[in-house]
Amino acid sequence: MFTPEVPLTQDLVLVGGGHAHALVLRKWGMDPLPGARLTVINPGPTAPYTGMLPGHVAGHYSRDTLEIDLVRLCRFAGARLVLAHATDIDRTARLITVEGQGPIAYDVASIDVGITAKMSIPGFGEHAVGAKPLDVYAQRWRDFVSATKDGSADPTVAVIGGGVAGCELALAMSHALRHAGVDPAVTVIEAGPRISGVGDTARRKLMKAMSQADIALRTDAKVTQINASQVVLKGQEPVQAAFTVGAAGAFPHGWLADTDLPLIDGFIETTPDLSITGDASVFAVGDCAAMPFAPRPKAGVFAVRAAPVLHHNLRAALTGAPRKTFKPQKNYLKLISLGGKSAMAENFGFAFSGHLLWRWKDRIDRAFMDKLDHLPQMQPAKIPETIALGARDIMQEKSLCGGCGAKVGAAPLADALSTLDSHKNPQVVTGVGDDAAVVKLPGGGFQVLSTDHLRAMVHDPVQMTRIAAVHALGDVWAMGAAPQVALSSLILPRMSPPLQARTLREITETARAVFYAAGATLVGGHTTMGAELTIGFTVTGTRDTMPITIAGAQPDDVLLLTRPIGSGVMMAAHMEGTAKGRDVARTLAIMQQPQSKQAEILRDAHAMTDVTGFGLAGHVLAICKASGLCATLRHADIPIYDGARALSDAGVGSSLLQANRDNAPTTGIDDPLIHDPQTAGGLLAALPRTAAERALKQLESKGLQGCIIGMLQDGAPSITLK
Fold first, then answer.
1. Measuring CA to CA, how many Å separate 131 from each of 121, 134, 268, 284, 437?
2. Treating both helix axes as pointing N-terminal to C-terminal, what angle do 581-591 and 567-576 enclose, rounded to 10 degrees?
3. pLDDT band, residue 1 (cuts 50/70/90)
4. Backbone angles phi, psi at 598, to 5 degrees
5. Is residue 634 within 8 Å of 666, Cβ to Cβ?
6. pLDDT of 104-120, one tens digit each?
7. Whose CA, among 136, 418, 469, 701, lies 20 to 30 Å from 333?
8. What phi, psi does 330 have (nearest 5°)?
9. Cα 573–578–581 angle (5° rounding)?
10. Which residues pair with 264 in a beta bridge?
11. Among 74, 288, 404, 707, the one annotated catalytic
């Protein structure tokens, strides 16, 4: 029975990757709402889990264990992830301002951005770090521990704030430094007369643990200044500290105060259904929210408990269904790490400590992370029992990749193009077989023409537009031409007119900016609706002299590559949910970077191409065939995207991989990454060694990458990998 496609009609935007939003993403992936498009805005690809931070600081947990992988979660949920800071919200226009790109429209929005511990103390910004945001603090701490190991930093630490968080972090940092082989001096600075946030019994246990760890406590201490090596106190001796952490209180993010959101002491005022006061289309949860209907301290447990209610009410806001009320518990169990693998539990005024409580806390924390790390395997589409011959075999193969991984293989493409005759028009200098067609202009000079389009690899139209534009420009840059004019060719999924307008605005503004920066003008294009997002561009460029082709390489030329390989396997793993979010984010960031500077440096190469769908081997072989040479590649010198090697060795590969291997066999090492289809890949230039070395120095001076990966020699067209 035919199931009609549900058009997209509503935009749900989650601002921040806090615990509640992470749990919402998991539930959304298991049961997405048809017709709703989900966007997540967060500055980084991961979000640290609060409960495991002290254990990570102490050295009990690795960085990967601590972090929630938002890239994987968003892929599982079918959400686009925008890696940037939100800086404003216009509730009248329903737009969220995002740093580094245009505003993002919403129909329903939710804010879960946590808090900051940055303090308004002179010198804090230059010489201290807040305990929150957690990821910033965790990175600074890792760097400091390394510095103490090599002797470049004194192991002196000050923690401003004698609450539970401050004492817990002080114990963790003291333990980590001792484990690193140094003798630490850790001091907790408390403005009040005693440790706060716990009862008398728990306070005594904390004091005992701190005493056993030789952690000093300064009470009734007011910080007046923070310097590079000490914390200055009013009326007391300064505290020596090469590393200072602010853990005194919870402070709202500054940008919230510049909005028209209803605030209580800088925190977003919410109602019992978690929507904000006076606006049922915007929600807030976690530490950034204030709950006047049920005031509670800032603790991660409330965000976790709020997640099911938030998930229900977001769907209700998008569908018009009734909402639920959030009723947070009045009492909750506090589990506090004591540095080593020991913990203290406090509830209802009672407190207990010991190694068994650490094991209990560890089990609870790991169970939470396992829920977000080990996502349910979604069932593939069912293959009909009765089906045309050959169709079942194709449907049982690897899922079709996005980007250049979805290209038609070289063999059928060559067969289809073999009937074209570009030489019937005397103005056409080169046609099929090179990066772009070359046309001789009547007034002198040459024009190059190329077209490319990409099946979406990620859900973000802005990110896909940047990648598609850079990818299309690669053909022009590879021929040493100056980009001139671009036309777009877009396929949008079926959606309502308002969402069409939002999406086209994002794509058009992004494309215009990329082409403008490259010296070209976006003059229009063509748009239709179809099954999935596809973005392409036709690009022209000009050059006074004959453009660089793949046929000009000479014996003893070396091959220079400007970008790593492995994007195909990375995107395939991203689709499968097996790639690390940080690796995916780094790969996508490089793929979006233009290569106009690299092209200018290499504009006198003997031959050049950009490495795209047919993989490094396929494009090297194309130069060899056109130039009548053979190539030797040095395996160890070929740059690879972070994480791609491990994924490839684990058997992950693009849907185009086998066709590429069949098209460009190599002798020597059999490495699938050499055949991995690339999207927005690097420029591959053949040029004399002295010119290549000069180009490498120029690239390095501009902060750009370049590697000499092999050499060309006389011989039958072939590739040897050593």
1. 15, 6, 21, 22, 57
2. 140
3. very low
4. -65, -40
5. no
6. 999 999 999 998 877 88
7. 136
8. -80, -35
9. 90
10. 267
11. 404
Global confidence as pTM: 0.90
Rounded CA-CA distance 710/112 in Å is 50
What domains appear along the chain, each with residue ranges and CATH number?
10-115+252-330 (3.50.50.60), 124-246 (3.50.50.60), 434-547 (3.30.1330.10), 549-722 (3.90.650.10)
DSSP state string for 110-167: EE----B-----TTHHHH-EES-SHHHHHHHHHHHHHHHHTTSS--EEEEE--SHHHH
Let me know: does 418 contact 441? Beta carbons within 8 Å. Answer: no
The secondary element (H helix, E strand) that includes residue 392 is helix 391-395
Q: Distance between alpha carbon 622 and the CA centroid of its chain, in Å?
A: 33
Q: pLDDT tens-digit profile of 173-226?
A: 999 999 999 999 999 999 999 988 888 898 999 999 999 999 999 999 999 999
Amino acid making up residue 640 = I
Mean pLDDT of the region 282-296: 94
- Token pair 């949920």: residue: 77
Report the alpha-carbon distance of residue 309 to residue 171 in Å, rounded: 35
Q: Which of 522, 519, 494, 499 is nearest to 510 (CA)?
A: 522
Which residue is associated with the tokens 């947070």?
328
Sign of CA dihedral 542, 546, 552, 554: negative
Q: How many of the other CB atoms lie within 10 Å of CB of 27?
A: 17
CA–CA dist 584, 570 (Å, integer): 7
pLDDT digits (tens, 9 = 90+) for 591-605: 999 999 999 999 999
- Quote the Cα angle for 478-482-483, to 5°: 90
Averaged pLDDT score across all residues of the chain = 91
**404 noted as active-site residue:** yes
Q: Are 641 and 583 in contact (CB under 8 A)?
A: yes
